[in-house]
Design brief:
By secondary structure, the protein is α/β, with parallel strands linked by helices. 42% of the residues lie in helices and 15% in strands. The protein is built from ten helices and nine strands. The strands form two sheets. The chain has a six-stranded mixed beta sheet, with helices on both faces. A three-stranded mixed beta sheet has the order 5-7-8. The longest helix is centred in the C-terminal third of the chain and has 18 residues, at 216-233. The chain is globular and about 60 Å long.
Length: 255
């Protein structure tokens, strides 16, 4: 099976492991990715997921060879995306651990994740530009929103490789880590995020996504409504009590 799952609660690591095709995704692999992320979403003990490509490659995109023998990616305006989870809106964070190439559809999978922990030797790119394969898993939407239209258009029109250093300067990468350590560092970051009060974190995350397409007034109202739900959970009372006892002062994140 090209998709594997390793669980160490509260972290749920989903692994693309198909080295013969550099972790390219065909129709069956896309379905397995969707199933894995649905299992993560429905698992109350799993708080943060990590998406990692084994054997030194994150994902080289759609498996173009599979198209010629009937195992191509699902192409439908409704339901799941061609690469699998690209149309899903999860309630919990996902961190991409990027080694090697994250290109074409692999770039789109990385963009779908909330954050990207990237090895210093990693490469991003719209390599599908060479073959006339379109970005239909959110690439032309998420990339401009993430790094701005000018830089996104540069990547989209030229297809050129973008190094980890350049990706970090653009905001495409959130962290750059030594070669071979993306999974380790992403899981460490995931554990840190999982320690925070979850209702507040999830509602703030949701507001950040939902504000796209809203005018300022509606976006602020939506943020406020989600904030009221957070306050109703009572999490802030526990946090306020902890602060009054001396925890978290002077910017400390130590518990």
């Amino acid at each position: 099976m090209p998709i594997k799952v390793e669980i160490k609660y509260p972290i749920y690591t989903i692994i693309i492991d198909n080295p013969e095709v550099k972790n390219a995704v065909d129709g069956q692999t896309a379905k397995e990715l969707v199933d894995a992320f649905r299992d993560f979403e429905n698992d109350s003990e799993a708080l943060v997921a990590v998406l990692w490509g084994a054997n030194g490659t994150f994902c080289s995109g759609a498996n173009l060879k599979a198209i010629t023998n009937g195992r191509g990616n699902r192409i439908d305006a409704k339901g799941d995306g061609p690469m699998g989870p690209s149309r899903m809106m999860l309630s919990k964070p996902v961190i991409a651990a990027v080694s090697g190439y994250a290109v074409a559809g692999g770039l789109e999978l990385a963009l779908w994740c909330d954050m990207r922990v990237v090895e210093e030797s990693a490469v991003f790119g719209v390599f599908s530009r060479r073959f006339g394969v379109p970005l239909i898993d959110g690439g032309t939407v998420r990339l401009p929103r993430l790094i701005g239209l000018s830089r996104a258009i540069d990547m989209i029109l030229t297809g050129r490789p973008v190094t980890a250093e350049e990706a970090l300067s653009w905001g495409l990468a959130n962290r750059v880590v030594p070669h071979g350590r993306s999974r380790e560092k992403a899981e460490k970051l995931a554990k840190k995020i999982a320690e925070f009060p979850r209702t507040c974190m999830r509602n703030d995350r949701l507001s950040s996504y939902q504000q796209f397409g809203m005018n300022l007034k509606d976006a602020l109202a939506n943020e406020f409504d989600l904030g009221l739900k957070t306050l109703a959970s009572g999490e802030y009372l526990k946090g306020s009590n902890a602060f009054s006892q001396g925890k978290g002062k002077h910017g400390s994140f130590n518990r």
